[in-house]
Amino acid sequence: MNAMTEALLFSEDWTPEREAALRHAMREDPVFAQAVVRWRQMQAAMRRDLARSLPDHHVLIVYALATSPYADLLTEAEHSALEAARPALEAALAAHPALRDVVRDVQEAAAAFEAVWEAQWPAGGSPTAPAPDRPARRRAAARTPAMRWTARIGLGVALALFVGLVGLLWLRDGRQITIEVPPDAVRTVALADGSTVRLLGGATLTYADPDRPTAFDRHVRLTGAAFFDVVKEARGFTVETPHALATVLGTSFGVVAGAERTEVTLVTGAVALAPRAAPDRPVRLAPGQRSVVAAGALASTPEAVDLTEALRWTRQFVFQDTPLEVAVARLSEHYGVPVYLDEVLAREPVTGRFAEEDYTLKEILDILARSLNAEVRLQPDGSYRLLPGA
Q1: What are phi and psi of 242, to 5 degrees?
Q2: What distances in angstroms separate CA 151 from CA 58, 155, 196, one per listed residue?
Q3: 25 contacts 46 by C-beta, under 8 angstroms
């Protein structure tokens, strides 16, 4: 582990100079930049998850002391607080086994402190520590022992252990699933939060196991092509590709993540797209826009696109306020069947998304016609005609 990596992982003193040095290192080393991004994302996700599981970290310190030879240091109030918090604490320990490692580290740190204290101020007296000081120290301990002890070792150290060990456990547990889609195939994946991903042939997706939800169930990694329907939540949803990070709240969008570039096309909602090496420099897409992140470059200025054409690769018919004449032209081309419109319907906007494998031409036309109070008629030659409703 080099000095810069140690500074990233363990420093609590982020001066402007250190921040500038880190940014310089990220620009010079893309691999290191990716590590920084992932580490910061993991830190934020772990903090959120642990805050939900164990809102009061002080309880964990009290628990560690209560289950150690130093239980007598706790006050009656602290014992009562521990009992009140015990159901939530036991649930947190069951959900995050690494918390037991934190408990052991707290107990070992307490034992080490007591050993040093005894060496400096032994109970029987010493030249460097008069015996009368010992009872005074015990009386002070009896007043606020757990808080006093936490202050001794440093709350920052305790919480660093708390977060770091759980993060390592999650990595060791491997609570992720990776799917590779065969060429020419299409597969839809349901994520733990209810979002869905339509994966195209050759795509690879890594995501949190829906049966073992964690703070990472709104973070996926993608190579290849996929279309996302993201459930709206307060937590952001992030798609990580070899070159980019796309962050959303609730939206639908397509991503093509190749070896040299990542392309994002937004249908609904909003997306912030940034290079992985510069996550603080995103562009924001509005519906109907596309942006590209090439290797080593910033995201391009979003540009308006025809969603029907831009998302053909999804093997879906994507209509978002699309004039009906444009929609039926695309359908007619795909199915090889003529579709005619009454002139009064030609510019009526239609919205919908239809997977090629799930719908027939007649079914799609019926859905679009109903949205306009129109009707579909099959003609003797096998073509279709859409007419205004009565």
Answers
A1: -55, -25
A2: 11, 6, 46
A3: no
Domains annotated on the chain, with CATH: 3-172 (no CATH), 176-306 (2.60.120.1440), 315-388 (3.55.50.30)
251 sits in which H/E element: strand 251-257
**pLDDT tens digits, one per residue of 317-371:** 999 999 999 999 999 999 999 999 998 999 999 999 999 889 999 999 999 999 9
Structure tokens, 290: 């596309």
CB 49 within 8 A of CB 162: no
Angle between helices 133-143 and 145-153 (to 10 degrees): 100
Measured between alpha carbons, how far apart are the two ends of the chain, in Å?
A: 75
154 φψ region: left (φ > 0), alpha (ψ -120 to 50), beta (else): left
Show the tokens assigned to 160: 């660093």
Model confidence, pTM? 0.56
Rounded CA separation 337/104 (Å): 71
